[in-house]
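hi! just following up on the protien thing from before. the input was this:
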Amino acid sequence: MQLMQFLSAPPPGHVFGLDAQMLASTIMQILNAVVLFALLFFILYKPVREMLKKRAERIQSQMERAEQDMNEADLLKAQYKENLSHIEEERVEILGAAHKSATQKSKGIVEEAKSEAEAAKKQARLDIMHQEEQARAALKMHVIELSSAMATKIVSHTIDREAQDRLFDEALRELEGATWPR
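and the predicted 3d structure came back as:
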């Protein structure tokens, strides 16, 4: 309440009522503030400065690390692109080699099949010739037997035994000397 009276009624010619006590109180408050600032400056200035310095160094190192990581990422990206291009080239080379190998193998298989077919044809011809020879020999023997049987029947009625043997030997010689068609 006094404060209100004091503020409300300043002495004439003054903006507010300033007396000795208020002046002493204001000086004490200013002195307390200066002492407090001085104490806080000496107590807190170094630790705060150190903390800010460490924080700035940490931020700087993080920035450098981030820049280094970006450079490494760019390098890895370039290597990746280079590897992709090499992989594409290798793929083309492998496919070309596989195609060439497959072509060579298919040619080899075709050549082998042709040679096997030729060998089978040759063997079949040999078998046919052999069977023809056997059939001719069997036919020749059959003709001889038939001729002999017919001659025996014809001669047995008209010729004696001695004449029959002579005619048979003569027919055999003629048949053996004859050439058979092939």
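The chain has a mean pLDDT of 82.
The CA atoms of residues 108 and 158 lie 74 Å apart.
cheers
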